């Protein structure tokens, strides 16, 4: 794994040229780093690029993902689903509605709120909360933790989960 920023374009081309891209912070491989960086490392793409010397023109996705997305866009354009006819009217309507830019107050509030959270906490429900489908969020979270431990070879958390949620207490004392 790299310890210093990229020094040449050849190094950068080799880095972004594979079907997957490696996170230079943790060494894991991904199709793209869009969600991984802020959730796991609490970094913006700009911070990551600056730290590792990656210019903006270089993508933070693997070639397979770029090709797939490009093909999807071409298919939508060919099917007439995606057109650019609406763009001039939409941008003018947004400017007239005063939605062209977030206010500075909103930016400051957003920075303050996100600074208080740990990376990856933004998607978690508070303890005791219900998910949108009505199921218990704590139970789901416990299952995910137990399942991941089981995949690593540790069956104890899954046994605790099953004992707590799946094995109903019997009325028979024997």
Summarize the structure in words:
With 174 residues, this protein is mainly alpha-helical. Among the domains are: 1-84, Orthogonal Bundle (Arc Repressor Mutant, subunit A); 137-166. It contains eight helices and two strands. The chain has a two-stranded antiparallel sheet with strand order 1-2. A hairpin with a 6-residue loop joins strand 1 (21-22) and strand 2 (29-30). Helix 7 packs antiparallel against helix 8 (156-166). It is extended, with a radius of gyration of 23 Å. It starts with 8 loop residues before the first helix and ends in an 8-residue tail after the last helix. The model has no long low-confidence stretch (mean pLDDT 80). Residues 103-140 have a biased composition (Basic and acidic residues). This is ROS/MUCR transcriptional regulator protein. It comes from Billgrantia gudaonensis. One of its GO terms (molecular function) is DNA binding.
């Amino acid at each position: 794994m790299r310890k210093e920023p990229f020094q040449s374009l050849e190094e950068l081309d080799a880095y972004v040229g594979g079907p997957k891209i490696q996170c230079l912070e943790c060494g894991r491989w991904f199709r793209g780093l869009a969600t991984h960086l802020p959730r796991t490392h609490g970094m913006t793409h700009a911070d990551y690029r600056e730290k590792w010397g990656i210019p903006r023109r270089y993508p933070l996705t693997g070639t397979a993902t770029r090709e797939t997305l490009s093909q999807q866009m071409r298919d939508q354009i060919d099917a007439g689903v995606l057109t650019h006819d609406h763009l001039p009217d939409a941008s003018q309507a947004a400017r007239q509605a005063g939605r062209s830019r977030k206010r500075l107050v909103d930016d400051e509030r957003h920075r303050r709120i996100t600074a208080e959270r740990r990376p990856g906490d933004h998607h978690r429900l508070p303890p005791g909360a219900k998910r949108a489908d009505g199921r218990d969020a704590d139970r789901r979270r416990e299952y995910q933790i137990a399942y991941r431990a089981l995949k690593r070879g540790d069956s104890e958390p899954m046994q605790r989960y099953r004992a707590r949620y799946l094995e109903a207490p019997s009325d028979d004392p024997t």
